[in-house]
């Protein structure tokens, strides 16, 4: 299938998290990366067996690239990317997945679909287990970082679009619970979740990059609409912890990857691009960098991608921080993750 899709106008542009393109070399690299992603992996309106939450992230990246590039090349992706997954999304009780889908729909201007999947996620809210927050799935026995962090960000994005006060309340309530939970480790990074033994302690699960980045836009919306300065200091502390604890030689690294081995699956190869892109989203909404610290970090990640992950003609591997020892992988997820970083850098001032 051609990578250029039919053109439709983008709605809800006023509520977009984007800023205009400022650093063209990264935008140019992103355009090529996106074309490769679509030409190799997007067929018959979808990404084949790739899980729908990753397709939602891809759609979000592509929507933002269209705005950066002043185009509507990928505006039809959202109309078909979930077609094969509707049953799973509607009935699968995967409360993190549906929020990625809600964000993608809202970014594309489809409020009705965004609300539908947000409402599915909202059924996971419970104060009867660990005192609050959302369950991860229909088993209702696990409260984890990503589901709750996404609810903070999705609620903020929904409030930004609709100004319905319930969304802001949901953001505030979930953030208050998450802060009070034991999910953050002593190094300032969120572990995967809480123990499901009734004690609701930190489970010492992996501190993935996206478990830190996913809530940053939500904190930006909290600051934007309430003036809560602690939302900024919390976000800065999380980004500082990312820089200190999840990088090697200045480049983001997941614990499942190294220069001579890769144990990251398709999900995990997606995480770094989300983290960097959501850092940019935070800066765009809040307008609050710490000097140029986080802008500089975003640009540095794109530079790492262009130094270590890049292959011939705009293809990208999962390895950002060092020279490939022969085990880096080249997949749809690694391509989209690099795309997220390049878009984020393109939103900054050169």
Automatic annotation (TrEMBL):
Record keywords: Hydrolase, Signal
Residues annotated as signal peptide: 1-21
Domain of life: Eukaryota
SUPFAM superfamilies according to UniProt: Six-hairpin glycosidases (SSF48208)
Species of origin: Mycena rosella (Pink bonnet)
Name of the protein in question: Glycoside hydrolase family 76 protein
GO molecular function list: hydrolase activity
Hydrolase keyword on record: yes
Single biological process term from Gene Ontology: carbohydrate metabolic process
